[in-house]
Every structure is written in C-alpha cells, then in structure tokens.
Design goal:
mainly alpha, 60% helix
C-alpha cells in the first residue's frame, strides 16, 4: 500500500497545509445526501429500470465477458486482498517513516476490516437474490424489494449489498487522516481528496462491473458505499480522543518528559 507523504515546508508556503482539526461535518453532510439519493433511487424503483436496459429474458449478455468476469472481478478481487495484506504490514511495521502514527495506521486497518465484516454480515442474512436469478432475466426468483425484510423471492438470496464493491469501498477510511486530521496535526488535505477520488473510482468500477454482468442492482453498490463510509466516518470520529492521547504521548517523548 503506497503511503501518501505528509506535507513539506514548501507546500505550506503556498497554503496547502492546515494546522488545525479538520471538521468531519462536510463528510457527514455528504453521507446524508448520499443516503437521501439512495432512498430516492430505491423507492423510485430505478433498479429494475437499469437492469431491464442491460439484460434480456435470456439473461445478461455480459455475464461471462472476459474483461468483466476475469479481470475486473476475479483478478481485481485478488489485488484488493493483497493490498489489504500490505496495509496490515504497513500498520504494524516499526518504522518512523510510515507516513502516519501507528495508532492511526492500526485504526485504518480496523475500519477497513469492520467495513468488510459489516457488508458480509448483511449479505449472508439477506434474502434478496441477484438480478440474474430473477424470472425477468431467465431465472426462478421474483423481484422483491430488499426493504421487505424477511420476505424471500424464491431464489438463493444473499445478494445484498454489493460484496465485490466492498473490495474497493471498504478502504474509504484511507482518506480520513487528511480530510479529518486529528487536532493540531499538520496535514495536506489534497492527499485525502486524492485517496477519496481513487477509492470512489475503484468502487464505481467494481460496482458497475457486477451490474453489467447482472450480479447486482445499482442500489447494492450505493448501500455498500453507505455502509463502508458510515462505519469509517463514525469510527474515525469516535476514535479521536484515543488518537489525541497518542499524539500527546509522542509530544511528551519528543520534549524529553517521562
């Protein structure tokens, strides 16, 4: 996992640095806006509109397309797994040049893992089947909204929210050390925006891949983003006292205090 560098004195000269606590309010407001849009999407029934434009009564023509099924699904999933392992090594590596304090690195790993677990927990308990299992596309299941909790659709279920999208969106927390830096920390916010753009782009690619193949409705990716970003923002915010205690300890050690 490449470690974005902290800001330099040269960059501070052009005003790119901020020495203060970056509020999480903009991210929280963006999360609420995404929630409102996703709810609108759900209750407008736009999932089936999109899927009927992609699929036919015989299924989804792109289901087994090599680029989508092999490269952007199977191989990209392996890349995400390797990146997570690299991230774990980065978090525990006893180096002062790792880019972020160890507490922040460990917290990032924890939030990524918690996001993955949350998505999979919802998924294994979901009775929503994949689009390619629906009668409209040659399957046996009938369409039932995922809001009808506990109501089966006659298919195998376990298809909500988007699991493949979580292989990218679970890394949402990586933008937070720069967009919501701990109090008194000097960070370059542009680094956080770059991380956020990269993660959202990867999430869009993974989600679109599964939608084009008929594996997931678009809303499945939106809900995965809501789950991963919500856990990351809330977890990072609640952990600020712990991070600040670590910062105070480092400052005391640097000043030669016991």
């Amino acid at each position: 996992m490449p470690t974005p560098s902290l800001a330099t004195p040269a960059s501070s000269a052009v005003g790119a640095l901020h020495l203060s606590h970056h509020s999480s309010r903009p991210l929280s407001l963006a999360w609420l806006a995404l929630l409102a849009f996703t709810l609108f999407w759900d209750f407008a029934g736009l999932d089936m509109v999109v899927m009927q434009a992609i699929g036919t009564h015989e299924g989804f023509p792109l289901r087994d397309q090599w680029l989508l099924s092999t490269v952007l699904h199977d191989q990209l999933r392996l890349v995400a797994q390797m990146l997570f392992l690299v991230m774990v090594v980065w978090a525990v590596w006893p180096s002062k040049n790792s880019g972020l304090p160890r507490r922040e690195r460990l917290l990032l790993v924890g939030l990524v893992l918690l996001s993955l677990l949350a998505v999979n927990l919802v998924k294994i308990n979901s009775r929503t089947s994949c689009p390619w299992d629906l009668q409209a596309f040659g399957g046996n299941a009938r369409y039932v909204s995922h809001w009808l909790l506990g109501v089966g659709d006659g298919g195998g279920g376990r298809c909500f929210p988007g699991g493949h999208a979580s292989s990218a969106l679970a890394f949402f927390a990586l933008c937070l050390p720069w967009l919501h830096a701990p109090s008194g920390t000097r960070r370059q916010r542009s680094t956080g925006w770059r991380w956020l753009a990269l993660i959202l782009f990867a999430g869009m690619v993974t989600g679109a891949t599964q939608t084009l193949r008929g594996a997931h409705h678009p809303s499945h990716t939106l809900w995965t983003l809501l789950i991963c970003s919500g856990i990351s923002i809330a977890g990072w915010r609640l952990s600020q006292p712990w991070l600040q205690r670590g910062a105070a300890k480092r400052q005391a050690l640097a000043a030669g205090k016991p």
